[in-house]
Predict the structure of Lutropin-choriogonadotropic hormone receptor.
Amino acid sequence: LILNTKNLLHIEDGAFRNLPRLKYLSICNTGIRKFPDLTQIFSSEAHFILELCDNLRMTTIPRNAFQGMNNESLTLKLYKNGFEDIHSHAFNGTKLNQLILKDNKNLRRIHNDALRGATGPDVLDISSTALESLPSYGLEAIQVLKSKMTLRLKRLPPLDKFSNLLEAVLTYPSHCCAFRNVRTEKQNSLLSIFDNFSKECESTMKKPTNEIFYRDDSYNTSLWSAEKNMSPFATDEETSPYSYSAIFDENEMTGLDFEYDFCQPKILTCTPEPDAFNPCEDILGYSFLRILIWFINILAIVGNFTVLLVLITSHYKLTVPRFLMCNLSFADFCMGLYLLLIASVDAQTSGQYYNYAIDWQTGSGCNTAGFFTVFASELSVYTLTVITIERWYTITYAMQLDRKLRLRHAVPIMLGGWIFSILIAVMPLLGVSSYMKVSICLPMDIEMALSQAYILIILVLNVVAFIVICACYIKIYIAVQNPELVAANKDTKVAKRMAILIFTDFTCMAPISFFAISAAFKVPLITVTNSKILLVLFYPVNSCANPFLYAIFTKAFRRDFFLLMSKLGCCKSRAELYRMNYFSAYTSNCKNGSSATGPSKASQALLLLSALKK
Protein backbone atom coordinates (compact mmCIF):
# COMPACT_ATOMS: atom_id res chain seq x y z
CA LEU A 1 0.00 0.00 0.00
CA ILE A 2 1.44 3.33 -1.11
CA LEU A 3 -1.03 5.83 0.27
CA ASN A 4 -1.27 9.58 0.98
CA THR A 5 2.24 10.44 -0.18
CA LYS A 6 1.77 13.74 -2.00
CA ASN A 7 5.53 14.29 -2.14
CA LEU A 8 6.09 11.04 -4.05
CA LEU A 9 6.61 12.32 -7.60
CA HIS A 10 8.21 9.35 -9.37
CA ILE A 11 8.51 5.57 -9.14
CA GLU A 12 11.56 4.29 -10.95
CA ASP A 13 11.19 1.61 -13.63
CA GLY A 14 11.76 -1.83 -12.15
CA ALA A 15 10.72 -0.83 -8.63
CA PHE A 16 8.08 -3.57 -8.78
CA ARG A 17 10.02 -6.61 -10.04
CA ASN A 18 9.57 -10.33 -9.56
CA LEU A 19 6.84 -10.32 -6.93
CA PRO A 20 5.22 -13.73 -7.51
CA ARG A 21 3.21 -13.69 -4.25
CA LEU A 22 1.80 -10.20 -4.72
CA LYS A 23 -2.02 -10.23 -4.70
CA TYR A 24 -2.90 -6.60 -4.20
CA LEU A 25 -1.17 -3.32 -5.01
CA SER A 26 -2.61 0.08 -4.12
CA ILE A 27 -1.06 3.42 -5.11
CA CYS A 28 -3.37 6.23 -4.02
CA ASN A 29 -3.21 9.95 -3.32
CA THR A 30 0.36 10.55 -4.52
CA GLY A 31 2.05 13.22 -6.62
CA ILE A 32 3.18 10.79 -9.35
CA ARG A 33 3.08 12.33 -12.83
CA LYS A 34 4.18 9.35 -14.95
CA PHE A 35 2.34 6.05 -15.03
CA PRO A 36 4.50 3.59 -12.99
CA ASP A 37 6.21 0.57 -14.55
CA LEU A 38 4.13 -2.44 -13.53
CA THR A 39 5.23 -4.80 -16.29
CA GLN A 40 7.82 -6.75 -14.28
CA ILE A 41 5.73 -7.86 -11.32
CA PHE A 42 5.08 -11.36 -12.73
CA SER A 43 2.61 -12.31 -10.02
CA SER A 44 1.60 -15.97 -10.04
CA GLU A 45 -1.54 -15.47 -7.96
CA ALA A 46 -4.86 -16.65 -9.39
CA HIS A 47 -6.35 -13.20 -9.07
CA PHE A 48 -4.48 -9.91 -8.90
CA ILE A 49 -5.97 -6.54 -7.90
CA LEU A 50 -4.39 -3.21 -8.83
CA GLU A 51 -5.77 -0.01 -7.34
CA LEU A 52 -4.69 3.41 -8.59
CA CYS A 53 -6.71 6.29 -7.15
CA ASP A 54 -6.50 10.03 -6.45
CA ASN A 55 -3.31 10.43 -8.48
CA LEU A 56 -4.44 13.67 -10.06
CA ARG A 57 -1.19 14.42 -11.91
CA MET A 58 -1.21 11.12 -13.79
CA THR A 59 -2.83 11.97 -17.14
CA THR A 60 -2.33 9.00 -19.51
CA ILE A 61 -2.26 5.22 -19.55
CA PRO A 62 0.45 4.20 -22.07
CA ARG A 63 0.74 1.15 -24.35
CA ASN A 64 1.30 -2.22 -22.66
CA ALA A 65 0.96 -0.59 -19.25
CA PHE A 66 -0.17 -3.81 -17.54
CA GLN A 67 1.57 -6.47 -19.62
CA GLY A 68 3.52 -8.92 -17.42
CA MET A 69 1.67 -8.14 -14.20
CA ASN A 70 -0.24 -11.40 -14.03
CA ASN A 71 -1.13 -14.24 -16.36
CA GLU A 72 -4.40 -15.00 -14.60
CA SER A 73 -7.46 -12.91 -13.69
CA LEU A 74 -6.81 -9.21 -13.19
CA THR A 75 -8.96 -6.49 -11.62
CA LEU A 76 -7.97 -2.88 -12.35
CA LYS A 77 -9.43 -0.20 -10.10
CA LEU A 78 -8.27 3.00 -11.79
CA TYR A 79 -10.54 5.67 -10.34
CA LYS A 80 -10.37 9.33 -9.31
CA ASN A 81 -7.15 9.97 -11.20
CA GLY A 82 -6.19 12.72 -13.62
CA PHE A 83 -6.42 10.45 -16.67
CA GLU A 84 -7.33 12.23 -19.89
CA ASP A 85 -6.38 9.63 -22.48
CA ILE A 86 -5.92 5.85 -22.66
CA HIS A 87 -3.58 4.83 -25.46
CA SER A 88 -3.81 2.03 -28.02
CA HIS A 89 -3.04 -1.48 -26.65
CA ALA A 90 -2.99 -0.07 -23.11
CA PHE A 91 -4.37 -3.34 -21.70
CA ASN A 92 -2.51 -5.66 -24.05
CA GLY A 93 -1.57 -9.07 -22.60
CA THR A 94 -4.06 -9.05 -19.71
CA LYS A 95 -7.01 -11.18 -18.69
CA LEU A 96 -9.34 -8.55 -17.34
CA ASN A 97 -12.07 -9.43 -14.92
CA GLN A 98 -13.04 -5.89 -13.94
CA LEU A 99 -11.92 -2.55 -15.37
CA ILE A 100 -13.02 0.30 -13.13
CA LEU A 101 -12.45 3.76 -14.63
CA LYS A 102 -15.14 5.67 -12.73
CA ASP A 103 -14.68 9.20 -11.40
CA ASN A 104 -11.87 10.06 -13.83
CA LYS A 105 -13.61 13.33 -14.57
CA ASN A 106 -11.10 14.43 -17.23
CA LEU A 107 -11.07 11.14 -19.14
CA ARG A 108 -12.26 12.13 -22.61
CA ARG A 109 -10.84 9.39 -24.82
CA ILE A 110 -10.26 5.68 -24.82
CA HIS A 111 -8.42 4.68 -28.00
CA ASN A 112 -10.40 2.33 -30.24
CA ASP A 113 -7.67 -0.30 -29.83
CA ALA A 114 -7.06 0.22 -26.11
CA LEU A 115 -8.46 -3.27 -25.36
CA ARG A 116 -6.81 -4.98 -28.30
CA GLY A 117 -4.67 -7.88 -27.12
CA ALA A 118 -6.61 -8.21 -23.86
CA THR A 119 -9.13 -10.81 -22.77
CA GLY A 120 -12.21 -9.24 -21.21
CA PRO A 121 -13.17 -7.21 -19.31
CA ASP A 122 -16.29 -8.83 -17.88
CA VAL A 123 -17.15 -5.64 -15.99
CA LEU A 124 -16.52 -2.12 -17.32
CA ASP A 125 -17.30 0.94 -15.18
CA ILE A 126 -16.89 4.37 -16.82
CA SER A 127 -19.25 6.28 -14.53
CA SER A 128 -18.66 10.01 -13.98
CA THR A 129 -16.16 10.44 -16.79
CA ALA A 130 -16.05 12.84 -19.75
CA LEU A 131 -16.06 10.10 -22.38
CA GLU A 132 -17.98 10.85 -25.55
CA SER A 133 -17.60 7.39 -27.10
CA LEU A 134 -16.63 3.83 -26.25
CA PRO A 135 -13.82 1.95 -28.02
CA SER A 136 -14.90 0.02 -31.09
CA TYR A 137 -12.90 -3.08 -30.15
CA GLY A 138 -13.09 -5.27 -27.05
CA LEU A 139 -16.70 -4.76 -26.00
CA GLU A 140 -17.79 -8.29 -26.89
CA ALA A 141 -16.73 -9.78 -23.54
CA ILE A 142 -18.48 -7.17 -21.37
CA GLN A 143 -21.26 -8.61 -19.23
CA VAL A 144 -21.79 -5.62 -16.92
CA LEU A 145 -21.54 -2.04 -18.21
CA LYS A 146 -21.82 0.91 -15.84
CA SER A 147 -21.86 4.49 -17.10
CA LYS A 148 -23.85 6.48 -14.57
CA MET A 149 -23.47 10.28 -14.82
CA THR A 150 -21.46 9.95 -18.03
CA LEU A 151 -23.24 12.94 -19.50
CA ARG A 152 -21.17 13.29 -22.66
CA LEU A 153 -21.69 9.69 -23.75
CA LYS A 154 -24.71 10.37 -25.94
CA ARG A 155 -24.25 7.62 -28.52
CA LEU A 156 -23.61 3.93 -28.11
CA PRO A 157 -21.60 1.67 -30.44
CA PRO A 158 -23.52 -0.78 -32.66
CA LEU A 159 -25.50 -3.24 -30.55
CA ASP A 160 -23.72 -6.27 -32.00
CA LYS A 161 -20.61 -5.13 -30.11
CA PHE A 162 -22.32 -6.05 -26.83
CA SER A 163 -22.76 -9.71 -27.66
CA ASN A 164 -22.57 -10.93 -24.04
CA LEU A 165 -24.01 -7.99 -22.12
CA LEU A 166 -26.25 -9.01 -19.21
CA GLU A 167 -26.55 -5.81 -17.18
CA ALA A 168 -26.30 -2.13 -18.12
CA VAL A 169 -26.48 0.80 -15.72
CA LEU A 170 -26.52 3.88 -17.92
CA THR A 171 -27.05 7.63 -17.71
CA TYR A 172 -29.89 8.20 -20.16
CA PRO A 173 -33.16 6.20 -20.31
CA SER A 174 -33.18 6.40 -24.11
CA HIS A 175 -30.05 4.24 -24.29
CA CYS A 176 -31.89 1.40 -22.58
CA CYS A 177 -34.27 1.40 -25.54
CA ALA A 178 -31.38 0.08 -27.61
CA PHE A 179 -31.25 -3.06 -25.49
CA ARG A 180 -34.97 -3.65 -25.21
CA ASN A 181 -35.96 -6.99 -26.73
CA VAL A 182 -32.33 -7.66 -27.69
CA ARG A 183 -30.94 -11.07 -26.83
CA THR A 184 -27.25 -11.60 -26.44
CA GLU A 185 -25.43 -14.50 -28.06
CA LYS A 186 -25.15 -16.25 -24.73
CA GLN A 187 -28.87 -15.77 -24.10
CA ASN A 188 -29.72 -17.17 -27.53
CA SER A 189 -27.62 -20.28 -26.92
CA LEU A 190 -29.11 -20.70 -23.46
CA LEU A 191 -32.64 -20.29 -24.78
CA SER A 192 -32.07 -22.94 -27.46
CA ILE A 193 -30.75 -25.34 -24.83
CA PHE A 194 -33.61 -24.63 -22.44
CA ASP A 195 -36.22 -25.06 -25.17
CA ASN A 196 -35.03 -28.63 -25.72
CA PHE A 197 -34.28 -29.36 -22.08
CA SER A 198 -37.26 -27.72 -20.36
CA LYS A 199 -39.18 -30.94 -19.68
CA GLU A 200 -36.18 -32.64 -18.12
CA CYS A 201 -35.41 -29.52 -16.10
CA GLU A 202 -38.96 -29.28 -14.78
CA SER A 203 -39.06 -32.97 -13.85
CA THR A 204 -35.76 -32.58 -12.05
CA MET A 205 -37.09 -29.69 -10.00
CA LYS A 206 -40.19 -31.66 -9.00
CA LYS A 207 -38.51 -34.53 -7.16
CA PRO A 208 -35.82 -35.03 -4.51
CA THR A 209 -32.59 -36.25 -6.01
CA ASN A 210 -28.91 -36.89 -5.48
CA GLU A 211 -28.09 -35.80 -9.00
CA ILE A 212 -25.27 -33.32 -9.53
CA PHE A 213 -25.87 -30.26 -11.67
CA TYR A 214 -23.24 -28.10 -13.33
CA ARG A 215 -23.74 -24.51 -14.17
CA ASP A 216 -21.36 -22.49 -16.31
CA ASP A 217 -21.87 -18.79 -15.61
CA SER A 218 -19.95 -15.63 -16.34
CA TYR A 219 -17.46 -15.91 -13.51
CA ASN A 220 -17.00 -19.56 -12.55
CA THR A 221 -18.20 -23.13 -12.87
CA SER A 222 -19.99 -24.07 -9.70
CA LEU A 223 -20.85 -27.53 -8.52
CA TRP A 224 -24.43 -27.73 -7.46
CA SER A 225 -25.34 -30.59 -5.19
CA ALA A 226 -28.88 -31.37 -4.10
CA GLU A 227 -28.92 -33.06 -0.74
CA LYS A 228 -30.95 -36.22 -0.42
CA ASN A 229 -34.57 -36.09 0.79
CA MET A 230 -34.77 -32.28 0.67
CA SER A 231 -37.75 -30.72 -1.09
CA PRO A 232 -36.81 -28.29 -3.89
CA PHE A 233 -39.92 -26.29 -3.11
CA ALA A 234 -39.01 -25.58 0.50
CA THR A 235 -39.23 -21.93 1.31
CA ASP A 236 -36.84 -22.10 4.21
CA GLU A 237 -33.35 -21.16 3.16
CA GLU A 238 -31.86 -23.95 5.29
CA THR A 239 -33.90 -26.76 3.73
CA SER A 240 -33.90 -25.82 0.07
CA PRO A 241 -31.18 -27.52 -1.99
CA TYR A 242 -31.21 -24.53 -4.32
CA SER A 243 -30.54 -21.86 -1.71
CA TYR A 244 -27.11 -20.32 -1.55
CA SER A 245 -26.50 -21.40 2.01
CA ALA A 246 -27.16 -25.06 1.18
CA ILE A 247 -24.13 -25.05 -1.11
CA PHE A 248 -21.85 -22.15 -0.15
CA ASP A 249 -20.64 -20.68 3.10
CA GLU A 250 -21.72 -17.09 3.65
CA ASN A 251 -18.18 -15.83 3.00
CA GLU A 252 -18.03 -17.69 -0.30
CA MET A 253 -21.14 -15.91 -1.56
CA THR A 254 -19.69 -12.43 -1.10
CA GLY A 255 -19.45 -10.59 -4.39
CA LEU A 256 -21.75 -12.95 -6.32
CA ASP A 257 -24.31 -10.72 -8.02
CA PHE A 258 -26.13 -13.23 -10.25
CA GLU A 259 -29.10 -15.43 -9.56
CA TYR A 260 -28.32 -19.13 -9.64
CA ASP A 261 -31.51 -20.48 -11.15
CA PHE A 262 -30.60 -23.20 -13.60
CA CYS A 263 -34.01 -23.53 -15.23
CA GLN A 264 -34.34 -19.86 -16.16
CA PRO A 265 -32.06 -18.12 -18.64
CA LYS A 266 -30.73 -14.67 -17.76
CA ILE A 267 -32.33 -11.66 -19.40
CA LEU A 268 -30.49 -8.45 -20.12
CA THR A 269 -31.43 -5.77 -17.60
CA CYS A 270 -30.94 -2.06 -18.17
CA THR A 271 -31.47 0.99 -15.98
CA PRO A 272 -32.74 3.69 -15.90
CA GLU A 273 -35.85 2.49 -17.68
CA PRO A 274 -37.60 4.81 -20.16
CA ASP A 275 -40.39 6.82 -18.55
CA ALA A 276 -43.83 7.86 -19.75
CA PHE A 277 -42.44 11.05 -21.31
CA ASN A 278 -39.79 9.23 -23.35
CA PRO A 279 -41.06 5.83 -24.47
CA CYS A 280 -38.94 3.59 -26.66
CA GLU A 281 -40.05 4.87 -30.05
CA ASP A 282 -39.10 7.31 -32.78
CA ILE A 283 -40.10 10.96 -32.54
CA LEU A 284 -43.43 10.50 -34.31
CA GLY A 285 -44.02 6.91 -33.24
CA TYR A 286 -46.56 5.92 -35.90
CA SER A 287 -45.67 5.36 -39.55
CA PHE A 288 -48.81 7.06 -40.90
CA LEU A 289 -47.92 10.23 -38.97
CA ARG A 290 -44.64 10.46 -40.89
CA ILE A 291 -46.59 10.82 -44.13
CA LEU A 292 -49.23 13.18 -42.77
CA ILE A 293 -46.78 15.55 -41.10
CA TRP A 294 -44.95 16.17 -44.39
CA PHE A 295 -48.22 16.86 -46.19
CA ILE A 296 -49.43 19.26 -43.47
CA ASN A 297 -46.16 21.14 -42.98
CA ILE A 298 -45.69 21.68 -46.74
CA LEU A 299 -49.23 23.05 -47.00
CA ALA A 300 -48.68 25.30 -43.97
CA ILE A 301 -45.36 26.68 -45.21
CA VAL A 302 -46.32 27.12 -48.87
CA GLY A 303 -49.82 28.43 -48.14
CA ASN A 304 -48.82 30.98 -45.52
CA PHE A 305 -45.72 32.10 -47.42
CA THR A 306 -47.89 32.71 -50.49
CA VAL A 307 -50.38 34.75 -48.47
CA LEU A 308 -47.60 36.83 -46.91
CA LEU A 309 -45.95 37.44 -50.27
CA VAL A 310 -49.18 38.52 -51.96
CA LEU A 311 -50.32 40.77 -49.12
CA ILE A 312 -46.95 42.46 -48.69
CA THR A 313 -46.43 43.09 -52.42
CA SER A 314 -50.02 44.21 -53.12
CA HIS A 315 -50.29 47.80 -54.39
CA TYR A 316 -53.63 48.22 -52.61
CA LYS A 317 -53.78 50.10 -49.35
CA LEU A 318 -52.82 48.13 -46.25
CA THR A 319 -56.06 47.96 -44.30
CA VAL A 320 -56.59 46.65 -40.79
CA PRO A 321 -57.89 43.24 -42.03
CA ARG A 322 -54.87 42.89 -44.35
CA PHE A 323 -52.52 43.79 -41.52
CA LEU A 324 -54.12 41.25 -39.17
CA MET A 325 -54.05 38.59 -41.88
CA CYS A 326 -50.29 39.18 -42.33
CA ASN A 327 -49.75 38.53 -38.63
CA LEU A 328 -51.86 35.38 -38.68
CA SER A 329 -50.05 34.07 -41.74
CA PHE A 330 -46.65 34.66 -40.15
CA ALA A 331 -47.70 32.82 -36.98
CA ASP A 332 -48.96 29.87 -39.00
CA PHE A 333 -45.80 29.93 -41.13
CA CYS A 334 -43.75 29.49 -37.93
CA MET A 335 -45.90 26.50 -37.01
CA GLY A 336 -45.05 25.02 -40.39
CA LEU A 337 -41.33 25.50 -39.64
CA TYR A 338 -41.79 23.63 -36.35
CA LEU A 339 -43.44 20.72 -38.13
CA LEU A 340 -40.67 20.74 -40.75
CA LEU A 341 -38.00 20.48 -38.03
CA ILE A 342 -39.79 17.61 -36.29
CA ALA A 343 -40.40 15.73 -39.56
CA SER A 344 -36.79 16.18 -40.73
CA VAL A 345 -35.23 14.95 -37.48
CA ASP A 346 -37.65 12.02 -37.35
CA ALA A 347 -36.67 11.01 -40.89
CA GLN A 348 -32.96 11.21 -40.06
CA THR A 349 -33.19 9.24 -36.79
CA SER A 350 -35.83 6.69 -37.73
CA GLY A 351 -35.09 3.31 -36.16
CA GLN A 352 -32.16 4.64 -34.11
CA TYR A 353 -33.63 7.56 -32.19
CA TYR A 354 -32.15 6.22 -28.93
CA ASN A 355 -28.72 7.21 -30.24
CA TYR A 356 -29.79 10.74 -31.16
CA ALA A 357 -32.32 11.47 -28.40
CA ILE A 358 -29.90 13.21 -26.05
CA ASP A 359 -28.28 15.39 -28.72
CA TRP A 360 -31.68 16.38 -30.06
CA GLN A 361 -33.57 17.01 -26.82
CA THR A 362 -30.73 18.80 -25.02
CA GLY A 363 -29.45 20.67 -28.06
CA SER A 364 -30.35 23.91 -29.79
CA GLY A 365 -32.51 22.12 -32.37
CA CYS A 366 -35.22 21.09 -29.91
CA ASN A 367 -35.14 24.47 -28.18
CA THR A 368 -35.58 26.18 -31.56
CA ALA A 369 -38.48 23.90 -32.49
CA GLY A 370 -40.12 24.45 -29.10
CA PHE A 371 -39.76 28.23 -29.37
CA PHE A 372 -41.34 28.19 -32.84
CA THR A 373 -44.35 26.13 -31.82
CA VAL A 374 -45.18 28.03 -28.60
CA PHE A 375 -44.63 31.43 -30.25
CA ALA A 376 -46.68 30.44 -33.30
CA SER A 377 -49.49 28.94 -31.25
CA GLU A 378 -49.88 31.92 -28.92
CA LEU A 379 -49.54 34.53 -31.65
CA SER A 380 -52.09 32.67 -33.78
CA VAL A 381 -54.63 32.48 -30.94
CA TYR A 382 -54.03 36.14 -30.08
CA THR A 383 -54.44 37.25 -33.70
CA LEU A 384 -57.61 35.20 -34.21
CA THR A 385 -59.03 36.85 -31.10
CA VAL A 386 -58.14 40.33 -32.39
CA ILE A 387 -59.62 39.51 -35.83
CA THR A 388 -62.88 38.42 -34.19
CA ILE A 389 -63.06 41.54 -32.00
CA GLU A 390 -62.32 43.69 -35.05
CA ARG A 391 -65.17 41.96 -36.95
CA TRP A 392 -67.55 42.59 -34.07
CA TYR A 393 -66.44 46.23 -33.72
CA THR A 394 -66.70 46.93 -37.47
CA ILE A 395 -70.21 45.51 -37.76
CA THR A 396 -71.50 46.97 -34.51
CA TYR A 397 -70.30 50.49 -35.38
CA ALA A 398 -70.69 50.26 -39.16
CA MET A 399 -72.65 53.53 -39.34
CA GLN A 400 -70.26 55.54 -37.15
CA LEU A 401 -67.28 56.50 -39.29
CA ASP A 402 -65.61 58.40 -36.46
CA ARG A 403 -65.27 55.14 -34.49
CA LYS A 404 -63.61 53.21 -37.27
CA LEU A 405 -60.66 51.05 -36.17
CA ARG A 406 -57.61 52.30 -38.01
CA LEU A 407 -54.14 50.94 -38.64
CA ARG A 408 -52.61 53.19 -36.00
CA HIS A 409 -54.78 51.38 -33.45
CA ALA A 410 -54.11 47.87 -34.74
CA VAL A 411 -50.31 48.18 -34.79
CA PRO A 412 -49.79 48.67 -31.02
CA ILE A 413 -52.40 45.99 -30.31
CA MET A 414 -50.47 43.43 -32.38
CA LEU A 415 -47.15 44.67 -30.99
CA GLY A 416 -48.45 43.70 -27.57
CA GLY A 417 -49.35 40.27 -28.96
CA TRP A 418 -45.84 39.78 -30.33
CA ILE A 419 -44.21 40.76 -27.05
CA PHE A 420 -46.54 38.45 -25.11
CA SER A 421 -45.94 35.50 -27.47
CA ILE A 422 -42.15 35.94 -27.41
CA LEU A 423 -42.10 36.11 -23.59
CA ILE A 424 -44.21 32.95 -23.31
CA ALA A 425 -41.95 31.10 -25.79
CA VAL A 426 -38.74 32.23 -24.06
CA MET A 427 -39.77 31.12 -20.55
CA PRO A 428 -38.81 27.42 -21.04
CA LEU A 429 -35.38 28.55 -22.27
CA LEU A 430 -34.93 30.37 -18.95
CA GLY A 431 -35.77 27.36 -16.79
CA VAL A 432 -39.54 27.69 -16.42
CA SER A 433 -40.65 24.27 -17.68
CA SER A 434 -38.48 22.85 -20.47
CA TYR A 435 -38.58 21.94 -24.14
CA MET A 436 -36.26 18.94 -23.60
CA LYS A 437 -38.73 16.85 -21.61
CA VAL A 438 -40.17 15.08 -24.68
CA SER A 439 -38.97 14.35 -28.20
CA ILE A 440 -41.61 16.61 -29.81
CA CYS A 441 -40.16 19.59 -27.89
CA LEU A 442 -43.31 20.83 -26.16
CA PRO A 443 -43.08 22.36 -22.66
CA MET A 444 -44.35 19.33 -20.74
CA ASP A 445 -42.12 19.63 -17.67
CA ILE A 446 -44.38 20.33 -14.67
CA GLU A 447 -42.13 19.07 -11.86
CA MET A 448 -41.77 22.50 -10.24
CA ALA A 449 -44.74 24.56 -9.08
CA LEU A 450 -43.62 27.48 -11.25
CA SER A 451 -43.53 25.25 -14.34
CA GLN A 452 -46.97 23.90 -13.56
CA ALA A 453 -48.32 27.43 -13.14
CA TYR A 454 -46.74 28.44 -16.47
CA ILE A 455 -48.53 25.65 -18.34
CA LEU A 456 -51.84 26.36 -16.63
CA ILE A 457 -51.62 30.10 -17.40
CA ILE A 458 -51.12 29.36 -21.11
CA LEU A 459 -54.04 26.95 -21.21
CA VAL A 460 -56.35 29.25 -19.24
CA LEU A 461 -55.51 32.18 -21.53
CA ASN A 462 -56.37 30.04 -24.56
CA VAL A 463 -59.68 29.09 -23.00
CA VAL A 464 -60.38 32.78 -22.23
CA ALA A 465 -59.59 33.64 -25.86
CA PHE A 466 -62.12 31.06 -27.00
CA ILE A 467 -64.75 32.50 -24.65
CA VAL A 468 -64.08 36.02 -25.98
CA ILE A 469 -64.49 34.80 -29.55
CA CYS A 470 -67.76 33.06 -28.66
CA ALA A 471 -69.05 36.19 -26.94
CA CYS A 472 -68.16 38.39 -29.92
CA TYR A 473 -70.00 36.20 -32.39
CA ILE A 474 -73.03 35.95 -30.15
CA LYS A 475 -73.12 39.76 -30.11
CA ILE A 476 -72.69 39.82 -33.89
CA TYR A 477 -75.67 37.48 -34.38
CA ILE A 478 -77.74 39.63 -32.05
CA ALA A 479 -76.69 42.77 -33.87
CA VAL A 480 -77.60 41.49 -37.34
CA GLN A 481 -81.19 40.97 -36.21
CA ASN A 482 -81.48 44.77 -36.01
CA PRO A 483 -83.34 45.94 -39.17
CA GLU A 484 -81.50 49.27 -39.03
CA LEU A 485 -78.26 47.58 -40.14
CA VAL A 486 -79.31 47.04 -43.76
CA ALA A 487 -76.19 48.72 -45.04
CA ALA A 488 -74.08 46.06 -43.45
CA ASN A 489 -76.03 43.15 -44.95
CA LYS A 490 -73.08 41.88 -46.97
CA ASP A 491 -70.85 42.19 -43.94
CA THR A 492 -73.16 40.04 -41.84
CA LYS A 493 -73.03 37.24 -44.40
CA VAL A 494 -69.28 37.32 -44.20
CA ALA A 495 -69.45 37.36 -40.42
CA LYS A 496 -71.56 34.22 -40.39
CA ARG A 497 -69.01 32.41 -42.49
CA MET A 498 -66.22 33.77 -40.34
CA ALA A 499 -67.98 32.41 -37.27
CA ILE A 500 -67.97 28.94 -38.75
CA LEU A 501 -64.28 29.22 -39.49
CA ILE A 502 -63.36 30.49 -36.03
CA PHE A 503 -65.39 27.80 -34.29
CA THR A 504 -63.77 25.21 -36.53
CA ASP A 505 -60.36 26.47 -35.44
CA PHE A 506 -61.13 26.19 -31.77
CA THR A 507 -62.89 22.86 -32.17
CA CYS A 508 -59.56 21.54 -33.41
CA MET A 509 -57.84 23.01 -30.36
CA ALA A 510 -60.40 21.70 -27.86
CA PRO A 511 -59.03 18.14 -27.46
CA ILE A 512 -55.49 19.45 -27.07
CA SER A 513 -56.55 21.91 -24.38
CA PHE A 514 -58.59 19.26 -22.57
CA PHE A 515 -55.80 16.69 -22.37
CA ALA A 516 -53.17 19.35 -21.65
CA ILE A 517 -55.10 20.75 -18.69
CA SER A 518 -55.55 17.27 -17.21
CA ALA A 519 -51.82 16.60 -17.63
CA ALA A 520 -50.94 19.95 -16.03
CA PHE A 521 -52.81 18.81 -12.93
CA LYS A 522 -50.72 15.60 -13.03
CA VAL A 523 -53.71 13.48 -14.04
CA PRO A 524 -52.74 12.53 -17.61
CA LEU A 525 -55.55 11.00 -19.63
CA ILE A 526 -53.43 10.23 -22.68
CA THR A 527 -49.93 8.87 -23.25
CA VAL A 528 -47.16 10.78 -25.00
CA THR A 529 -47.36 8.24 -27.83
CA ASN A 530 -51.05 8.97 -28.45
CA SER A 531 -50.55 12.70 -27.94
CA LYS A 532 -48.43 12.68 -31.08
CA ILE A 533 -51.61 11.92 -33.03
CA LEU A 534 -53.10 15.15 -31.66
CA LEU A 535 -49.85 16.93 -32.50
CA VAL A 536 -50.14 16.05 -36.20
CA LEU A 537 -53.90 15.74 -36.79
CA PHE A 538 -55.25 18.60 -34.64
CA TYR A 539 -52.53 20.94 -33.38
CA PRO A 540 -51.30 22.24 -36.81
CA VAL A 541 -54.50 21.88 -38.83
CA ASN A 542 -55.38 25.53 -38.27
CA SER A 543 -52.00 26.64 -39.57
CA CYS A 544 -52.56 24.55 -42.67
CA ALA A 545 -56.16 25.64 -43.25
CA ASN A 546 -56.11 29.32 -42.24
CA PRO A 547 -54.34 30.69 -45.33
CA PHE A 548 -56.83 28.91 -47.59
CA LEU A 549 -59.98 29.74 -45.63
CA TYR A 550 -59.10 33.34 -44.77
CA ALA A 551 -57.26 34.42 -47.90
CA ILE A 552 -56.58 32.07 -50.82
CA PHE A 553 -60.25 31.16 -51.37
CA THR A 554 -61.38 34.82 -51.39
CA LYS A 555 -61.97 36.97 -54.46
CA ALA A 556 -59.80 39.79 -53.15
CA PHE A 557 -56.81 37.48 -52.67
CA ARG A 558 -57.21 35.93 -56.12
CA ARG A 559 -57.27 39.43 -57.60
CA ASP A 560 -54.09 40.41 -55.74
CA PHE A 561 -52.44 37.11 -56.64
CA PHE A 562 -53.02 37.45 -60.39
CA LEU A 563 -51.96 41.12 -60.32
CA LEU A 564 -48.72 40.02 -58.71
CA MET A 565 -48.23 37.26 -61.28
CA SER A 566 -48.81 39.78 -64.10
CA LYS A 567 -45.86 41.78 -62.78
CA LEU A 568 -43.77 38.65 -63.27
CA GLY A 569 -45.03 38.21 -66.82
CA CYS A 570 -47.62 35.52 -66.11
CA CYS A 571 -51.47 35.44 -66.23
CA LYS A 572 -51.69 38.95 -67.71
CA SER A 573 -55.12 38.45 -69.29
CA ARG A 574 -56.57 37.10 -66.03
CA ALA A 575 -55.05 40.01 -64.09
CA GLU A 576 -56.52 42.52 -66.54
CA LEU A 577 -59.95 40.93 -66.10
CA TYR A 578 -59.75 41.32 -62.31
CA ARG A 579 -58.54 44.91 -62.73
CA MET A 580 -61.50 45.79 -64.97
CA ASN A 581 -64.02 44.14 -62.63
CA TYR A 582 -62.65 46.06 -59.65
CA PHE A 583 -62.86 49.45 -61.35
CA SER A 584 -66.32 48.62 -62.72
CA ALA A 585 -67.52 47.97 -59.18
CA TYR A 586 -65.81 51.17 -58.01
CA THR A 587 -67.49 53.26 -60.78
CA SER A 588 -70.86 51.71 -60.04
CA ASN A 589 -70.58 52.66 -56.38
CA CYS A 590 -69.74 56.26 -57.33
CA LYS A 591 -72.77 56.57 -59.61
CA ASN A 592 -75.02 55.26 -56.86
CA GLY A 593 -73.83 58.01 -54.57
CA SER A 594 -71.36 56.04 -52.54
CA SER A 595 -68.24 57.62 -51.19
CA ALA A 596 -65.71 58.28 -53.85
CA THR A 597 -63.02 56.75 -51.78
CA GLY A 598 -63.97 53.16 -52.60
CA PRO A 599 -66.29 50.41 -51.40
CA SER A 600 -68.53 50.83 -48.38
CA LYS A 601 -66.91 51.20 -45.01
CA ALA A 602 -67.69 47.77 -43.57
CA SER A 603 -67.33 45.97 -46.91
CA GLN A 604 -63.89 47.43 -47.38
CA ALA A 605 -62.90 46.20 -43.91
CA LEU A 606 -64.11 42.68 -44.66
CA LEU A 607 -63.11 42.37 -48.30
CA LEU A 608 -60.01 40.26 -47.81
CA LEU A 609 -61.47 38.09 -45.08
CA SER A 610 -64.60 36.95 -46.88
CA ALA A 611 -64.44 33.20 -47.05
CA LEU A 612 -66.71 32.62 -50.01
CA LYS A 613 -65.65 29.73 -52.22
CA LYS A 614 -66.50 30.79 -55.72
